[in-house]
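fyi for ur records
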Amino acid sequence: MRIGAPKETAQGEARVALTPESAERLQKLGYDCLVESGAGAAASITDAAYEAVGVKIADTAAEVWSDADVIVKVREPSAEEIEAAPDGKTLISFIWPAANEELLDRLKLKNMSVLAMDMVPRISRAQKMDALSSMANIAGYRAVVEASNNFGRFFMGQMTAAGKVPPAKVLVVGAGVAGLAAIGTSVSLGAITMAFDVRPEVSEQIESMGAEFVFLDFEEEQADGAETGGYASPSSPEFREKQLEKFRKLAPDVDIVITTALIPNRPAPELWTADMVAAMKPGSVVVDLAAERGGNCSLTKANEKVVSDNGVTVIGYTDFPSRMATQSSNLYATNIRHMLDDLTPTKDGSPIIDIEDDVIRGALVTHQGEITWPPPPPKVKAIAAAAPKKKELEETAEEKAARELTEMKKSLNQTGLLLVVGGVLCLALGAVAPPSFMQHFIVFVLSVFIGFHVIWGVAHSLHTPLMAITNAVSSIIIVGALLQIVSGSPLVMLLASISVLMASINIFGGFLVTRRMLAMFQRS
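which gave:
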């Protein structure tokens, strides 16, 4: 069978659903590939690149729709494309069925089997087909690039001959795929990055990327991720008011705000209001990744860049992935290829739509002349349901005192037992060993005891724990060597001098290495 990719007809759409790399992999599955001439031009993919891997070039979109059995697209087909399409085709594309009921009716009348890439369930096995995450990742990265292009200063702080340049301060609202991509890009450019999300459990992930998590002093039960497809659930009015109050405090201090809060098939929540924009410094930038669904900023206009009265730029572009067409096309084509890989278990070039498969059934919106959306819940949940948290009982003062007394008695018993056993061993050894040996042995035991407490009592404030202990051991070696360096024996003096030298190198080297390590994490 043949897979065809027509040129996208949506205005400004530069992506293509089939790349030479994905075509090669699809040919190994037994498919022939067909692409409309110039379909990849906006993504810097020439017709010659397709022909080099055995892809046939069609002159028109009508030829692609006519000759191909499976049509792959980025945007949903227009009414004109559907009208001109032959009956019974298989279509793989973004569809957005919740917002396009009329489109589903048209596809049903054409008896098409349609797999919506935006409906791929968020389960582990389907991650390789998750085109929404692929595009969100690119959008988050591009949002920071657009912000830097419209921001009049450096992201990274610098010390120049003309003076010190402070780093930019970036706030990312929402720590989904797009938000995390924006955080990573902002941090890598050297900006002081803060991030907020209604799910406090993502704080560790944010902090591990080098950003600061903005905590909100408000407790609210969030719906389990298994029930919301891995997305954050809508917040209560009380939580929203507390959230807006926090943002108002941050607004005068931040230079760039990137908002990514969006739940599929819902209007975007308004999180950055007009008064917050008014509180920002002139020259600041707001990038709204939710502009297509109304926007998180009250001043956002879809597909436009506006400047507020106080000089704040608000960017509401809806085509961030298309602005990086080459990268977007490569990732999206890979998602399509993985979908076709699952549709072709026998690797013979014949797709099989298995409605018992959670991934395929979840993405299937029309089939055999019927609308199959919405799908039933997947057998495997998007995220495993969280185990109910056990409420920890707080100890009373009496219970705490009783516990500490029990622990102290246990510790004293262990210490006493060790002392008794050690004393018995010393007495047994003293009965057979000469007095001179016992004197040295007692000094040795006391040295071990004192050395243990000295070494493990060293604070790790200037070192890693391992380096702190190593320096403490080296210090004790120096003390011992200095006591022996005054010995009358030339050999002992030589060995003691060598010990002082090597231990000193270890100590000073430890301080030097630690200082260089700490300098790596300091921002000017």
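The chain has a mean pLDDT of 89. thats all i got for now
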